């Protein structure tokens, strides 16, 4: 055995250091002596300096320290470049880098090593920066308690491509879905979370090559939030499950009451969706609740006497509550005092969202919780700065005109630099409000989603926050309307979108309590002209729901709302400055000729097309728009695989332009594409489809006319009629 043998590891080495000092003490001492006696290999100045440095190092250390260092010296023999690359790929996967990002991450790290050579700088911080940017945090809840059925769920998800979980409120559906998703995340799946079926559909039907899993949380609405589109969402869900590709997975966590109502039945055993059963998470295995309480009491540092009393009550069946309720009891264990702990725990466990809303109000958290409820959703959150803005800090941005009249810039200077909306003065978060957030986080009502973003830790707390909004009195009417207006017309795309998504329940609840319904509808109408395309889309969807609920009151406004959306074109939007936005006062498409669209860079377009064909992640919207400008001039060059990828964008204007270009010329074998276009309800997409069919009609074959006629019949003959059909 030579000197290096103890330092050599097998080819399947997984990144572990040697457990024990690898060399015998005598060998380590011999190695140290050789270092001290170092001589230059060649008679050069560099070699002499190197030998001197080695000798000094040997004199300054010991054989024991050398041997400790050797625990981290790994040698591999007879390995190829491919072996090393595979090993590095496995290490990166173990660290949480997704499959489709591993190669890029490795190339970045190799470049950092090359850049560091000769600089004398430690390369490790640069490598850590790459890892921090590429590693995707696990979606698995840290305090999850397994029920024993998880491996069966994973097996079903692998075999059927979908897993359906249901049960009563606070039984742990979402955490169970995340735990299962985490298992597939470790296998390389990219995990995304949505609350609407159509959002999940665009991602899951997109032909990107990487493996994608979507967690769909209460797509029909929750027991705490009624969804008028539950039946339609359930039909879309059935269709989506049938169309899942082999590298796609879907987990649905749905509250049972809405599901049972949509199916007009009284038992989950009688419900199947996409021919798959729904698993009832309200039925707990023996000892499960005791394990949940043990974990939650430790996490929340519940005193031993309280922990013991509640444990005994659970074991005796005196406290039989959903798993999520035990987390709430543990978080508010300060309310459990004296000799009557069990009764107090029962009272706390049975606390309704309205009761807890009153607790939040009495603690002084009303305004902060109200701002969070208005400016965030289960998916979208607002940064601390935006919460401060909703609370009234900072100067409001100028609201757009609701009449759609174009306002010319001074001197008609359309060539001026166009910048995204921003605050005139940065809102500062009040110290008192920050203290309230700290207290809510301490009690597990809130948790940090990002460094400066809070989210509600459970739907129960979100529902309680909405109850806080609902309890507003007439004297607070202006304050609440101001908060909604600030959220909707925020310079933050996510806050604006979240507020727009919340308009439907704000309208319902505040119409009943303080008669704010008409004011909210008016804000939504103005929102059709706000900076962000997503905000406009969501305001439009809300207004369609309003027309459905009160046609006699709002039907006369429908045509104007439809026109406001359908007149928008892709060149009206700035796509290359981060999040897409409409430049203030310049959005009317009838004056698009005053702005010359950039000439597409064909080299960039080719790169974008190659990535789309290869199944890479969707490019940024700006690159997609540049490609569409190119294809608009040469529609015959747009191929079906590229078109299907473009239909995966969430931005309706991109899908609209892609559909328009595709339908302009004769096509064959595109039944899948035409079916996707028939499902579209976005007004801009529908408008462009109808324009393209009309324009191409006389230039296509009779067979093509038959197919286009079916598309036209779905969406025509007028935008107003199309909107009414969606109702």
UniProtKB/TrEMBL annotation:
SUPFAM superfamilies, per database record: P-loop containing nucleoside triphosphate hydrolases (SSF52540)
Any single Pfam family the record assigns to this protein: nSTAND3
Occurrences of domain Novel STAND NTPase (ranges): 144-269
InterPro entries according to UniProt: nSTAND3, P-loop_NTPase
Superkingdom field: Bacteria
Name of the protein in its database record: Novel STAND NTPase 3 domain-containing protein
Phylogenetic classification of the source organism: Bacteria, Pseudomonadati, Pseudomonadota, Betaproteobacteria, Burkholderiales
